[in-house]
Amino acid sequence: MLRRLRRRRAAVHVAVLASIVLLAGCSGLLGFSDYSVVDSTLGDSGPSTEASAETSTDGGGDEEASCNVDLTLQCYACAPATTEQFLNSCSDGQCVPFDKTRLTPFLAADGGLPALPVDGG
Q1: What would the DSSP string read from start to end of 58-102?
Q2: Residue 71 CB contacts under 8 Å (≥ 6 apart), including other chains
Q3: Which residue of 6, 11, 88, 92 has the lowest C-beta tally within 10 Å?
Q4: What is the pTM of this model?
Q5: What mean pLDDT is predicted for residues 87-116?
Q6: How is residue 27 annotated by DSSP?
């Protein structure tokens, strides 16, 4: 019985080791190590699109100026390089304002939120 337990334990160890070797081999073959994740908030992401637009001397003119925008006021029209630029990138979608009058039937008489229901449990 002790031999059977040792054999099972050895089989589990061999299976785990084989899985690790297989995953490491696939990672090398598929090139997973070629990719990396860079957090732009750490400042280690290299030159950003904003910085390259300011220092570029190829005579782009208006195109360079459109990349250096205040993202709180307008969208980012250039290819995004940071998370903030990606989240604020321009799109072809149409803006449809929310109709707040649809909420008025659900509000209290004074325009405030109604009281929460009392929990019966």
Answers
A1: S--THHHHHHS--TTTS-B-S---SHHHHHTB--SPPP----GGG
A2: 84, 85, 88
A3: 92
A4: 0.28
A5: 87
A6: H
